[in-house]
Amino acid sequence: MRIIAASLAVAAALAWSGPAGAQELAIGVAAPLSGPSAPLGRQVEAGAAVVARALGVQVSTADDACTAEGGAAAAKQFAAEKVAAVVGFLCTESIEAALPVLKDAGIPVITVGVRTESLTDRREKTGWSVFRLAPRGDDERNAAATILTRLWRAQPFAIVDDGTIYGRELAETVRNAAEQAALKPVFIDTYRPDMDNQIGLAGRLKKAGAEQVFVGGDGDDVAILGRDAAKLDAGITVAGGEALRAAPSDVPYVDGTLMIAEPEWADIADGDTLAAFSAAGVIPEGYALPVYATVQIVKAAAAQAAGRPLADVLGGQDFATAIGSIRFDAKGDLTQNPYRAFRFEGGAFVPLPQPENQ
């Protein structure tokens, strides 16, 4: 019912925005509106529709289907329409197929979902005019390393992982950062995931004297380890990455569990923006608010362009948006890592105060 209601509201907002050329500024919106990723694409479409109505801009939506073929077709559509910029894109295949076409057309792109590091790392080589409101693929593990080594500087800590690529990369990044900060974990191990209990691991951690443990693994394993450590009265705080956003299957998280993750955008969005979503009957979930912010950025940059290429204005300055101040670096990435620390309290994760230079 939520998806149907949002779709009706989107249709109404898009109908309001009128035919191409009716608005002063035209912006392309690329999203997967068919296939397995369509529910996420509808969030993009919803956010674009609400911001089009709120800011009085023209949006043109194309289904990139999360495929190379769909991305190329969407780019050709936007080039023919001569849009000022394109926002959206959730998949590497579609954006990488679209960027050469959009480069030739002189149209910059802001992606809200593609985390592939090489997308911006190759900017100088490819000449692609791409900016990223999404985090980089390495932002999560870099944030975990930076935040936790600061929090645990004076406490004995351990690092464990589940042996997967994701878990191992997270754990290795935290371990390397600790070593660079002259900190040495009291225990390092790879555990067997998806077990009914982790009492053995909890016992080894207690014996090693660990008071904090970072887990490169999923939420279920973190919840079970937290429960079993509490059974042993081990006095251990368990931490993990953004996989903890997914509620564990059977065992709840223990109060005090730490999570390194992006904020829930609806929790930090300004009141006027949330009121605009409410008035449109659209739930501001998932990618809806980031897309809203990208359109705000494009409109602000277009107002300052004064004949200059829009891409030149997008880089190197702060933009006020519904989800806070945004600034892109020379490669097109965010200048500030969006990941933050949260603590589980009373059934929900609540943000911890940020380190001063985070």
List the helices and strands and how they pair.
Elements lengths: L1 H16 L8 E6 L6 H18 L2 E6 L4 H14 L3 E4 L3 H14 L3 E3 L6 H4 L1 H4 L3 E3 L6 H13 L5 E5 L3 H16 L6 E4 L8 H10 L3 E5 L2 H13 L5 E4 L17 E4 L3 H4 L2 H10 L7 H18 L4 H5 L3 E4 L2 E4 L12 E6 L2 E4 L7
Parallel strand pairs: 1-2, 1-3, 3-4, 4-5, 6-7, 6-8, 8-9, 9-10
Antiparallel strand pairs: 10-13, 11-12, 13-14
Please give a structural write-up.
It is a single chain. This protein is elongated. It has helices at 2-17, 38-55, 68-81, 92-105, 118-121, 123-126, 139-151, 165-180, 199-208, 219-231, 265-268, 271-280, 288-305, 310-314, and strands spanning 26-31, 58-63, 85-88, 109-111, 130-132, 157-161, 187-190, 212-216, 237-240, 258-261, 318-321, 324-327, 340-345, 348-351. The protein folds into two domains: 2-135 and 265-327, Rossmann fold (3-Layer(aba) Sandwich), CATH 3.40.50.2300; 139-261 and 339-351, Rossmann fold (3-Layer(aba) Sandwich), CATH 3.40.50.2300. Helix 1 packs across helix 2 and helix 9 packs across helix 10. The chain is of the alpha/beta class and 358 residues long. The model is unreliable at 1-23 (pLDDT under 50). The strands form three sheets. The protein has a seven-stranded mixed beta sheet with strand order 7-6-8-9-10-13-14, with helices on both faces.
